[in-house]
Specification:
Strand order of the largest sheet of chain A: 4-3-2-1-5-6-7
Largest sheet of chain A: 7 strands, parallel
CATH superfamily of the largest domain in chain A: NAD(P)-binding Rossmann-like Domain
Number of domains of chain A: 3
Oligomer: homodimer
Strand content of chain A: 15-25%
CATH architecture of the largest domain in chain A: 3-Layer(aba) Sandwich
CATH class of the largest domain in chain A: Alpha Beta
Shape of chain A: globular
Distance between the termini of chain A: 52 Å
Number of strands of chain A: 13
Order of helices and strands of chain A: EHEHEHEHEHEHEHEHHHEEEHHEEHHHH
């Protein structure tokens, strides 16, 4: 029996994590969760899973829930998030919050000796050096939840790190993969949110269209698998059936494939190194799919991916700056304040204005994040 | 350092095995080998690798080689093959002979506690129950060399048998994959030997065109991975880039991919569970390949595959009969005595005439083999 604390229970990954817990009551138990502003969803989760602790975003919501559920400990805000992350009953933290808010609770959970199932890209992107060092020191595992990193993780089972030649992340190309760069000038928010393969949250769907999502994954892969950027490649694969690959130095390539269903990697992170059945997911039928397509990445077309490699190679505070700038720029795009191509323009200009600090402490990372957001605001005003 | 005995050193797999040994002189050493009728090739191998023991097919050749190489033990025939297979210095036998002649030396080698890198399909097809039981009793490993079984074996590293849902073997479709069944009536030996993806020996290239090769692989997979035929599927994949796959019960599919180069699976069998570099093999470039195609198997079109499943499910002596009938029929085809489609007709009729013995001892297997060959001769006369 694994006891789980779930940060971000009402988001896309959170809901699917709850489905996994629901399907395997003998294997998993929910000890705590955090939710955003959706009070009704939080109520439903408390009813169904009876956790010991719940954290919501706002004080008023926490007070209302506390009256409804007197036997559950209801907290709110940053403190609530950290209490949920470190609850003694849990052995595993599923970090499925969106954005850099996931960083500090994850570090606290690592120090509290929890294994981390990590769906929150920003945690590793902004502070990969801190998080991986902390995990190593605490002797806990960082278990990828993203389908790409899970594919790599699965491909590495039974293998030795010294034999890895390179990681090959697959990228669907996002909503606009069939558009030329000049066609991107005028795309709308609605078009951007119409992802061909996956149904995800708005932020990540925009990141998928700009390919910042893949950029964040490249940086995350760098930290998760301890490999230089020279050994991390990206290939366009529109069907998203091969979720990613590992090439070894004998030129053998291992890959993990499947129908697009995030519950498979989520469950794998929770069952690893074992597997449990997941009978209601769609079985892969390659004959029905017929063809898988592959194409080289054009870094001029997908400039955000180029920026992410640059940020990753620069290191230090630069990935945190890139990530914060991207969060702000995507929010501005979703608020219809800027155009699609201005997202990358803002990220690039914010990165240019930043003087990176190498091997930053957590505080310097957080400062760089704040500074980057301020830069974006000044660029937008 | 692994010390290797290589049966079938002058065949396609044998030559590539020697190349692997040549590339890694610090990892591998050749203790013994067997060769067929190519005396010049045997001389060259002795010169280069300086083995302690060599077995050739005929007495006269052995005598000539003995005069040339007085310090090497030169034997011939069945006894020579068994002496090479069981030589004390070797820890691993690479069984790369063609046809059912590989069976008895392999069993002797297992009893002599050698791990078996098994490229000889017939060994498992005709006596899988005997070979796997012997290997288990002796505590030795059966390491697949075939690219398909190696792909499955690689996909199973770090995994548990209980979690396997099915094996998915890929089939290129052979020389005639774009031909309708009625077009096969008139195909020639030359057309048959022109395989689109792999350069192999004549017998295996014909088997690839009839898809008996895949049928033998299905039976081999049954024994190697201890799974019922219901859990072994075949899919058409013309590019032979995905070498085979394993689906687990969480619907995750693991696959091994690569450029067509048999040295990769040969080397993996010898380095397992580790890997060694193989720098001069072609690196997989999926973007350059562009598309991978998949198609369901039509069992009416590929009737030999249907026969193989039938033989496998029938069990007992039936796979040995099917295999012997196929060897004889393919030889008759290569001798231009029968047409391409008559190969399967002969195999089917030979199987129909056989009354299978269940759980046969080795002697009964060998008798069934002899009986089947006699049946084919009577059908041909």
């Amino acid at each position: 029996m694994k006891t789980i604390s779930l940060l971000g229970a009402t988001g896309s990954i959170g809901v699917q994590t709850l489905d996994i817990i629901r399907k395997h009551p003998d294997s998993f138990q929910l000890a705590a969760f955090s939710a955003g502003k959706n009070e009704q969803a939080a109520q439903n989760i408390i009813h169904e899973f009876e956790p010991a602790l719940v954290s919501v975003m706002e004080k008023e919501a926490a007070e209302r829930l506390q009256l409804q559920f007197p036997s559950v400990r209801i907290l709110y805000g940053k403190e609530g998030l950290e209490a949920a992350a470190t609850i003694a009953e849990a052995d595993t933290l599923v970090n499925a919050v969106i954005g850099s808010v996931g960083l500090e609770p994850t570090l606290k959970a690592i120090k509290a000796k929890k294994n981390i199932a990590i769906a929150n890209k920003e945690t590793l992107v902004t502070a990969g050096h801190i998080v991986t060092a902390a995990a190593q020191q605490a002797g806990v595992h960082l278990l990828p939840v993203d389908s790409e990193h899970s594919a790599i993780f699965q491909s590495l089972q039974g293998e030795q790190e010294k034999n890895i030649s390179r990681l090959i992340l697959t990228a669907s190309g996002g909503s606009f993969r069939d558009k030329q760069r000049e066609e991107l000038e005028s795309v709308t928010v609605e078009e951007t949110l119409n992802h061909p393969n996956w149904s995800m949250g708005a932020k990540i769907t925009v990141d998928s269209a700009t390919m910042m999502n893949k950029g964040l994954e490249v940086i995350e892969a760098h930290w998760l698998f301890d490999l230089p950027y020279e050994q991390i490649d990206v290939i366009l694969h529109r069907e998203s059936i091969i979720h990613s690959m590992v090439e070894f130095h004998d030129r053998s390539v291992m890959a993990q494939l499947g129908s697009p269903d995030m519950r498979v990697p989520i469950q794998y992170a929770l069952t690893w190194p074992d597997r449990l059945p997941l009978p209601d997911t769609t079985r892969l039928n390659l004959a029905q799919i017929g063809r898988l397509h592959f194409q080289e990445i054009d870094f001029d077309r997908y400039r955000m991916l180029h920026l992410a490699y640059t940020a990753g190679r620069t290191g230090g505070t630069m990935p945190a700056v890139m990530n914060a700038a991207n969060e702000e720029a995507v929010a501005a795009f979703l608020d219809r304040k800027i155009s699609f191509l201005q997202i990358e323009e803002i990220v690039e200009r914010t990165m240019e204005k930043h003087t990176p600090v190498q091997s930053p402490e957590l505080e310097a990372v957080l400062e760089a994040d704040i500074e980057a957001r301020a830069t974006v605001r000044s660029l937008l005003s």
